[in-house]
Amino acid sequence: MLLAIAALAINVDDPQQSWQVAPNPEHLAYRDFIATSGAGIFDLQINVMVDVAEQSPMRLLMGGEQGISWFGRDQNRRVVLRNPVHGCLWDCFFETSARKVTVFVPRTLTRYERGQPVVHCPVVYPLDQCLLMYHMASRQGAIFHAAGAFHEGRGALFLGRSRTGKSTVSRQLQAHGGFRVVSDDRIIVRKLPEGYTAYGTPWPGEAKIARNESAPLDALFFLHKAPENRIVPVTPRLAFERLLPVASIPWFDPEVFPSVLEYLDQLTTDVPAFDLHFKPTPEIADDIARLLRSIQGSR
Question: pTM of the entire structure?
Fold first, then answer.
């Protein structure tokens, strides 16, 4: 099974050759991110093993948040997802570069479909976010709590945690007609030789928007609900501070997170940022469109 997320080719395979790794029909947002073919050169190679992982001593880095526990030893990392009903859902091993990954899935979570043994692909939320967070940490990329919209072929991020208005802004931009919203909850930004590029992801929010599309990034907007619309420029330093709580950063891993901070510092130096004070009316989309045209016109 092949996935394409943020222009990264992810191959999910069964080296045991005894189970078919298949998409989970419950994860509808991934339909646009399943690739039909690949060139054989993959950014991430993920092997799915239907078995119990051999235990090796690792130090607990962080545990308990949403059932996820992180472990580490030297360059080796392990992340495990458990829930009270099924116990372990997957047990994942990789090095900090996160290029080659092994995921162990319990046999109890396999099934037969049309007489064939099947394991539904475990590389969905939250495992894919965990792996991509590490993979991009040393490669000038990061995942953000943000809606993303493209205007005249250029991208803008609308950043904020839960209940700050990402889905609300997304609906206003969609209704405007001049914007193409690609995600209302998570966006990936990578720095490529040609500049910063924003990518839609398969992790939607309330508006259920998840499109596998990309565009050059022109602006960062930090969301603030307000009684009137205002767009206020912010300094690169303040933008950096505002990005910290809305970027996926492995704070628990001192060997990895400094490179993410360096990337965020460069991003906020290179891309203009604004505080977006807004009320949920169509006028806010007009204001954003005018500002983006002025940025695009100054390039």
Answer: 0.94
